[in-house]
Amino acid sequence: MKDRNRRQKKGPAASGAAHASDRARPAASAKAPAKPEMKGGPKHPGPARTLAKTRNVAADTARTRPQKVVEQPSEPPRPVRVHAGDKPTERVPVILETAGTDDYRLIDSGDGEKLEQYGPYRIVRPEAQALWPRSLPAHVWDRADAVFTGDTDEDGMGRWRFPGAALGETWPMRLLETDFYGRFTAFRHVGVFPEQLAHWSWMKARIEAAGRPLKVLNLFGYTGVASLVAARAGTEVTHVDASKKAIGWARENQALGRGEKLPIRWICEDAMKFILREERRGSRYDIILADPPKFGRGPNGEVWQLFEGLPLMLDICREILSPKDAALVLTAYSIRASFYSIHELVRETMRGRGGLVESGELVIREGGLDGSVAGRALSTSLFSRWTS
Ligand SMILES: C[S@@+](CC[C@H](N)C(=O)[O-])C[C@H]1O[C@@H](n2cnc3c(N)ncnc32)[C@H](O)[C@@H]1O
């Protein structure tokens, strides 16, 4: 994910005060190690690399005040346990596809860009994986309401341009009966990652079929759409994100849908710190969603690096999952890895707990202007899902 520490040179044209001030050092974002892969490399690298382009969230959710940066502890908080017992059964590859809805659709893609419908707006953004030509004619693309322009390089900055009327920073949207704001944020994001709909509708169905109240933990929860979907479906939700700004946006989404009474705990904390405490307390969750960036920072400068932190994070999740009827849904993006890397890690982590691990990719399929076309599939991320 590009939400590492990059200096923000310019903000989005669409930004109001919130964005103008959010150019300070990213908080939830992370400091990427100064690896050459971050700076150079081919323009169209492999899929794992290009996934990074889709998720520079932390810059969007940067806090305005300088953060206290703590040293990364040299020792992990606890060792990763090696578990005995059989591995869960497996199903691979599984491709989870998000088709369009009235409020979201991938209309077309090609020539390194994608054209999407978000509520009332058609939006064009860079998409390095769209290597193929566009299907729809130029005049359709030219009528877009918002275009994210700028450097398409992984480290690149950009800004929103509105070819017609100037647009406000936010607009109301509704997916899975849940209201939230679409939002022109810095670095091309729009406040929701629609490929997650595949996970969210699966989770909603599971909650509704449970026949008992469940507890959901949403780690790296961003603007809270998954938390709101889960709470509306009848669960108690604990939502954790390191960015105060993202938590603020999540609360705005909650208010938009008049969901103030929904049982959601909004927690601004480092995800690892939070789950370690939950493990010590003996807390249990029936469903854990985790969508960690490659690099991130906790509110107190805690460093999250996926390749270092994921084995321990999953191991702790294992401990805080309910003993029966539990599920863990992991998404990974912007990593140079195959889904097998997270698949095998989840299977090792869940040894002795039975169940099934399904892994693969989350893709979004082009639907054309009215959703009637079954176009090409655009890959967005890798996932692995364990169910007991
Ligand atoms: C890609 S977003 C997750 C999107 C979410 N799954 C969704 O679809 O709405 C990643 C989030 O991780 C948060 N984050 C980064 N580092 C973190 C850390 N150390 N602890 C908790 N959250 C962190 C960022 O603030 C950001 O909101």
UniProtKB/TrEMBL annotation:
<feature type="region of interest" description="Disordered">
    <location>
        <begin position="1"/>
        <end position="85"/>
    </location>
</feature>
<keyword id="KW-0808">Transferase</keyword>
<dbReference type="Pfam" id="PF03602">
    <property type="entry name" value="Cons_hypoth95"/>
</dbReference>
<keyword id="KW-0489">Methyltransferase</keyword>
<dbReference type="GO" id="GO:0008168">
    <property type="term" value="F:methyltransferase activity"/>
</dbReference>
<feature type="compositionally biased region" description="Basic residues">
    <location>
        <begin position="1"/>
        <end position="10"/>
    </location>
</feature>
<protein>
    <submittedName>
        <fullName>23S rRNA (Cytosine1962-C5)-methyltransferase</fullName>
        <ecNumber>2.1.1.191</ecNumber>
    </submittedName>
</protein>
<dbReference type="InterPro" id="IPR013780">
    <property type="entry name" value="Glyco_hydro_b"/>
</dbReference>
<dbReference type="InterPro" id="IPR029063">
    <property type="entry name" value="SAM-dependent_MTases_sf"/>
</dbReference>
<dbReference type="GO" id="GO:0032259">
    <property type="term" value="P:methylation"/>
</dbReference>
